[in-house]
C-alpha cells in the first residue's frame, strides 16, 4: 500500500509517494537522498537519526513517513545558515565533539532540541529543583543527551561544545 | 567517483604542523551531515538486499522454499546455495557465503532476498521457509573441556609450581571477561555495483586495499577490476578490519543483478552475529612474590573460544608475556572450537581482555604484601622485555604511574578497603597499567606526492580514517615533510584507486602511513628539488625499520579511577577516570586526546555494562540490540582525562610516534574493578561490574 505525502525538509518542500511501511528515516535517506539523518539501530535506541520535527527532537526511525505528512523536518544539514555554521556545529568542531562523525548529525539536532526543551522549563531526571527553571550544568547536559550514543566516546567534547555554544544559539536567556 | 578533498585547513607555518592542535580536516563535512558513508552514495535505481539466517546452530539445510518470497511484489531474486554465484575457495571459510548446505552457527546467512525496496526485501526474507537436518550443537566455553587445543606455543621458564610453593605471598585466582561486540554506530554497509567496468564497492571498511585483497581471489577477479571506496567510515573498532560475509553476500547479489547497484546495511541485530566479536576469556592467574613484593613467579592460563566455521584466536596471554619479569613463568593459551559465530578483531584484541586478570591480580598481590599498588608495579618494572630479552626502545610505565598519581591526587590515599562511606556511597580509587605493542603493519603501504602549482600539494594514500583523525594527522605529517603549511596540502584517502595502504588495525595507521608519506616527500624533494614544476610527482613505499629487530617496542600507560558504589542498591558510578600515557610523539593533541579518551570510555563501558549473553540452548546472543547490550552513554562519563608524557623514541619510526588508538581501552576495566574493591572490599573478578556483585 502506498500513500502520497509532503515533507518540508530543511526548508524545501517535497511531494513523494511512499510505501506505508516506510519510516520517516528511510523516506529522508532513500527517497530524498538526505545524508544527515543516520541509521544506527532502526529501533530508537541510538539517536543517530534524530531530527527536529516541527521544531522538536524526534527519532526518525520510529516515525512512519505517513505520520510525518505535512511536517517540517530539520536535519543537521539545515541547522547551518548557508555557509555559516550553526553555533553548535562550530562548537562541536572546536571541542572535537566527534570522531567518526556518524552519530554527529543526530547529536547536533538533539542538542538544538534539548536547548529549547530546557528553555521551556522541561525538567530531566537530573533536575534537582522542579520548581525553578532548569540550569544547564554539565550533569544536566549529560542526562539530556544520553539518548544519543557515541561509540567513539566523544562525550566530554559534546558536553563542552553544547555548554559553550548554548549562549549563542538564540535560545532565551534565564534558562541556562 | 574520486576521493573527496576538504576545505583548506587553518594555516600553519612551514615545519610547524606536527604537534599543532588543529581541528579535523573532515570536520565541516561531518557536522553538516554531508560526509557520505557507504550507504549514502547516490547510485541509480538500487536494489535492496536482506539476509535470511539459520535458526539452528549446527546441521544441514535439506530444503529451501522460496516460492512465497518470490511471489511478493518487487522481489527480484532469492539467492541460496543452490543458485548463488560460485566463489573460489580460500582459506577463510567465513567468507564462503551461500556456497553449501552446511550450517555452522545460528544466525549464519543461508539465503538472501533482492528486492526493489527495503520493505519488500525484509518482508520476503521472512517468507523463505527452511528445513534442516539438525545436529546437536555445543557452545559451552570451559577451561575443563577435553578438546581444548593450543593455538600457540606455551611460554615456560623455570618452575612456577615450586615458586608458588616457596613464595611468601602466592595468589591463584581466576578472572573472566565476557563476549563483547564492537558496536560501531554505523552498521556494516555495502553498496555494490558490478557492471562491464568491473566491481565497485562503497564499503564501511578499515582498509579498502585489505578488503580488495581478500575479495579478489574469492571472485577470481583481477584486483584492478575492483574499486573499493571508503573515505568516511562510521566507526570500526576492529570489526570493519577483516572482510566479513555480508560484504561477499552483497557482491554475489550484485553479480546476480549485473549492472544494477545492490545495497545492504546490516540491522543492529545482524551486528551481533555477522561481523565478529571478542571471545569470552577465562584467565587463571598465579603470582608468587617475596615479602618485598618482588615477583618470583607469574602464571597465566587463558581459555578462549573460536568457531567451527573458521579460526580466530583472541591472544589474551600476549600482555603477560611482556609486562612483568620473574624467574619462573608459565603462560599458556587454550582454545575451544564451538558451534558459534566466528570471533574477530575488537579494539585491542588480546591486549584488552588479557590485561584485566593480571592487573586485578597485581592489585590483590599489593594488598597481600601491604604495598601501594603503584609501588608494587614499580618494584617489578623490568629493564628488558621478559618475552624476548631485547631492550625496550622506550618503556615509560614508571613515568606514567608517577605522573598519573600526581595528577589524580593519589599520594594521601588510605589503602584500607570499604571504609569511606559518603552520603550513602562507598568511595574508592584504583589503578592499573596499560600497554599496547608497536605492531608491524599488516601489509605494504605506498604514497604519492604531487605538486599541483605554486607550492600546493596533493598526497595520495589509500589509508582509512574511521574516526581516528588519520586524515588530519597525515595532512600534518605531509606538510612538515614537504616544508609546507597544512593549508597547502590536500591528502586523499579511502579509495583503492589511490596507492595501496595497510589496514587501520593494531594502532599502526599513523606510524605506517605517516612514515610512508615522509618517505614519499623525501623522494619528491630528491627528484624535483625545492622548486618543482606543476604536475611533478614521486612515490615511495613504507621503508623497512631494522630497529624492530633490535628492540622491544610498546606504548605504556597508567589508568586511575574513582568509583562510588551505593551502599543500599549497589549502583556503581565512576565520577573520575584519568589516564597517563607514554606513546611517543603526539602529532595532534586534539585528535590524540579524543582517541585516548575514546578508548578509556570504551574501557569504562566494558567495566560497567558490556556483555553479550549466549543462550546455550539455541547458540545465539540474546541481548542483540542497544537496549539490552548497553554501551556507555553520556551520563556514564563524568570527569575523564587523558594526559601524556613527553617521550622521545628514535627507534620506532622516523616520526617517533607509537599507536594511540587502542591503548586507552587496555587496563581501564582493571582500574575500575580495583577501585570498586577499594570502595567496598568486594573483589570482583568477573566483568562487567554489575550491581549484584555488591549486594549481600
Explain the overall architecture.
The complex is a heterodimer of chains A (176) and B (696). Chain A has 176 residues and is of the alpha+beta class. Chain A folds into 2 domains: 2-78, Ubiquitin-like (UB roll); 87-168, [2Fe-2S]-binding domain (DNA polymerase, domain 1, Orthogonal Bundle). Helices cover 31% and strands 16% of the residues of chain A. Chain A has helices at residues 24-31, 76-79, 87-94, 104-119, 138-144, 155-165; strands at 2-9, 12-19, 50-53, 56-59, 71-74. In chain A, strands 2-1-5-3-4 form a 5-stranded mixed sheet, with helices on both faces. In chain A, a hairpin with a 2-residue loop joins strand 1 and strand 2 (12-19). In chain A, 56% of the residues are buried. In chain B, helix 9 runs parallel beside helix 16 (668-680) and helix 15 (589-608) packs across helix 16 (668-680). Chain B has a 7-stranded mixed sheet, sandwiched between helices. In chain B, strands 7-15-14-13-8 form a 5-stranded mixed sheet, with helices on both faces. Chain B has a 5-stranded mixed sheet with strand order 16-17-22-23-26. Chain B is globular, with a radius of gyration of 26 Å. Chain B has 696 residues and is α+β, with helices and mostly antiparallel strands. Among the domains of chain B are: 27-35 and 441-546, 2-Layer Sandwich (Aldehyde Oxidoreductase, domain 4); 355-438 and 553-694, Aldehyde oxidase/xanthine dehydrogenase, molybdopterin binding domain (Aldehyde Oxidoreductase, domain 4, 2-Layer Sandwich). Chain B is built from 16 helices and 26 strands. The longest helix of chain B is centred in the C-terminal third of the chain and has 20 residues, at 509-528. Chains A and B meet through helix 1, helix 3, helix 4, helix 5 and helix 6 of A and helix 1, helix 3 and helix 15 of B.
- Specify the biggest β-sheet of chain B: 7 strands, mixed
Tell me the CATH architecture of the domain at 355-438 and 553-694 in chain B. Answer: 2-Layer Sandwich
Question: How does the helix and strand content of chain A classify structurally?
Answer: alpha+beta
List low-confidence stretches of chain A. Answer: none
Total count of strands of chain A:
5
Name the CATH class of the largest domain in chain A. Mainly Alpha
Q: What percentage of amino acids of chain B are in beta strands?
A: 15-25%
Intertermini distance of chain A: 47 Å
What share of the residues of chain B lie within helices? 10-25%
Largest sheet of chain A: 5 strands, mixed
> How many individual helices of chain A?
6
Helicity of chain A, as a percent range? 25-40%
Roughly what is the average pLDDT of chain A, rounded to an integer? 95
Report the total helices of chain B. 16
Strand order of the largest sheet of chain B: 3-5-1-12-9-10-11
Distance between the termini of chain B: 62 Å
